[in-house]
Amino acid sequence: MKIIKPYLLAGSLALVLASCGGGAEILSTPTENIDNVALKVADLTENEKHTWGHLDIVADTIPGMSVDKAYAELLNGKTGETVIVAVIDSGIDIDHEDLDGVVWTNTKEIAGNGIDDDKNGYVDDIHGWNFLGEAYNEQLEKTRIVASGNGNAEVQADYDADYQKYSGYKMQYEQIYQSLVAADEAVSEHLNNKDYTPKDLNAITTTDETLTNHIAVLKQVYGFGFDNTAAAKKELSGALESINDMLNYNLNKEFNGRLTGDNPDDLNDKPGYGNGNVKPVKKSESHGTHVAGIIAAERNNGKGANGVANNVKIMSVRAVPNGDEYDKDIALAIRYAVDNGAKVINGSFGKYYSPHSDWVRDAITYAGENDVLFVNAAGNEGADLDAVAVYPNDQVANGPEVSNTFVTVGALAPKYGSSMVAGFSNYGKINVDVFAPGAKIYSTTPENEYDTKGGTSMAAPAVAGVAALIRSYYPKLSAAQVKQILMDSGLPVNQKVVVGGDSSDIRDFNTLTKSGKMVNAYNALIMAQQLSK
């Protein structure tokens, strides 16, 4: 699931340029108190920005998951079992200072001997498996379909619309970036200071019309929340890189990023393709590292981030390129994770076309049959998943579920009240199970760095972390029971919220998800304890 790209910025700048079983109430905070929580007016502190997903709705007036409260009041002094969590994603920097202590190691395999010691079909899979080999960029699935000549008029129209849209974005963003650079250079020269502040900018008085226009551009940039032009240029540069990737690779019908030598349309072709190197192939391949940190970054080690779960080992399964994943890779990745001991799988990826969705659905069924919980990101288009299919999923056309261990997660923003649903988050009364913190999440990125990212890609691992906590401290509970706990123990929200980032679309929160709740670690552990008696 690609992280939301800041394309909306272009349009703006262009203006210038519950209960359990029998119904025993277990909420630590009564529902009526939740509904009357005072809205937070003050801006988040730096610490709150970095930890908001772990905070408590009542104590902090931030819609977090009460993770810190759970550790302080419920887990203090307790010892849990180690849980393997498979992260099916881009590569993970397993040498990161905040992750190197939580990396899964296949003790049945001897590193570097070129032999499949454990006879699982994968040679030297020490920390997981890389189904992509050395590949990085890939086409979107719609591009593959159109290029193959197998697409219908609807797919062709969808492809053509995207190609036209991103071509327009490219032109617009290049113009905006050039205007910003020119404005920055002009003001720097006028002030003889490259590190000027908004205060310095506001103090300029001039009758020079050109300089006045440059100042107006920079003031508009600051108005969108940037503290300086360097941050704005970084944002725009990143967006341009994404747009160029989209045109050069994702939407390029002539591009072929497949390097593993197998036939992706044959599930049985070349078993064991890929290699055991699960690390990113370039620094910008940061998605998997960020997701892994949300789940299990080493807690309280004095470094950048705390994961939701302790007692976790992260199994890295590299299967998501810079483009759409192949169904074959995902189906085999799920089976690899199950067969090698994962009890929770995180899937922060997704697409809207899936020629072999049955392969993936069969793998999801396999995970459920083997007591493995699959936590799935809902997607980032602000769409109703009851009306449009996104893949992977565990049902066909809103029909019966093939697994009762598949959880789909929407994303919350760090502001309780009408704006608490992230504007990008998909939703659905049938097809989305719960919501969890997913906007502006701080976590690990490659080469011992940290960054803030947003998407349902970040909400899913938050829930995977809570699931891992339950499975660690209450290991007798089944994956199906863990799913039910996540849904039943969450906090119900009787609020009207903005949906899809559209201020005219206001709905009851409980209509956006099957449970009508946001995940709460504290309550989940209380319910898990009750069910384990």
UniProtKB/TrEMBL annotation:
GO molecular function terms listed in the Swiss-Prot or TrEMBL record: hydrolase activity
Enzyme class label: hydrolase
Stretch forming the signal peptide: 1-24
Ranges where the Peptidase S8/S53 domain occurs: 80-489
EC numbers, comma separated: 3.4.-.-
Keyword Hydrolase: yes
Keywords annotated in UniProt: Hydrolase, Protease, Serine protease, Signal
Region named Disordered: 259-289
Coiled-coil residues: none
A Pfam cross-reference name: Peptidase_S8
Active site: 89, 287, 457
Family: Belongs to the peptidase S8 family.
Identification of the protein by name: S8 family peptidase
